[in-house]
């Protein structure tokens, strides 16, 4: 098993929805860990609602997961985004510079936050898959699997108990 050392090592552009492009520093261990730590601290400082039973519990769990992903998008964006194109001020007259607050506001747009997380973390995700030896299967999930069972002997079929 082996991995390719092909993480981006220079700043690069990512194209996001709505005509937005962001110029980001390369993702590395320090950037990822810092973003996760900032997101964790942000989530701890927010008020946690009590967990509720049943369907309400599932809804609350989903909301917490959504808040965690948004916090990661904000923290990653605040660390990584060096410049951007296609982002205007609230009145729409002048380009909005990437500041801590403007990054937070743009990551409140679901399509932007989702695309940013997917694209920015994509090199790490590919590296993780390579490291686990789990590349894309050529024909479906089981297309690359080895057949280790073989064919059952005919006597096994005759002596197997029948479940009723």
Task: Give an overview of the whole structure.
- It is a single chain.
- With 164 residues, the chain is mostly helical.
- It has five helices and three strands; from the N terminus they run ββααβααα.
- The protein has helices at 29-45, 54-80, 100-106, 110-131, 154-159, and strands at 12-15, 21-24, 81-85.
- Strands 1-2-3 form a three-stranded antiparallel β-sheet.
- Helix 1 (29-45) crosses helix 2 (54-80) and helix 2 (54-80) crosses helix 4.
- The radius of gyration is 23 Å and the shape is globular.
- Residues 134-144 have low confidence and may be disordered.
Low-confidence stretches: 134-144
Largest sheet, if any?
Answer: 3 strands, antiparallel
Number of helices: 5
> Could you give the order of the helices and strands?
EEHHEHHH
Helix content: 40-55%
Strand order of the largest sheet: 1-2-3
Please compute the radius of gyration using only Cα atoms: 23 Å
Beta-strand percent range: 5-15%
Task: Outline the secondary-structure elements.
Layout (H helix, E strand, L loop, with lengths): L11 E4 L5 E4 L4 H17 L8 H27 E5 L14 H7 L3 H22 L22 H6 L5
Antiparallel strand pairs: 1-2, 2-3
Helix pairs in contact: 1-2, 2-4
């Amino acid at each position: 098993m082996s991995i390719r050392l092909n993480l981006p090592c220079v700043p690069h552009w990512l194209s996001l929805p709505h005509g937005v492009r962001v110029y980001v520093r390369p993702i590395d261990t320090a950037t990822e860990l810092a973003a996760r730590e900032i997101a964790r601290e942000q989530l701890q400082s927010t008020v946690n609602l009590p967990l509720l039973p049943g369907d309400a519990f599932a809804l609350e769990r989903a909301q917490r997961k959504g808040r965690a992903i948004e916090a990661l998008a904000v923290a990653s964006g605040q660390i990584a985004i060096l410049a951007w194109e296609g982002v205007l001020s609230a009145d729409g007259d002048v380009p909005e510079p990437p500041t801590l607050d403007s990054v937070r506001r743009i990551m409140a747009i679901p399509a932007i936050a989702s695309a940013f997380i997917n694209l920015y973390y994509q090199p790490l995700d590919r590296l993780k898959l390579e490291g686990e030896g789990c590349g894309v299967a050529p024909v479906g999930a089981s297309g690359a699997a080895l057949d280790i069972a073989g064919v059952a002997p005919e006597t096994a079929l005759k002596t197997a108990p029948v479940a009723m």
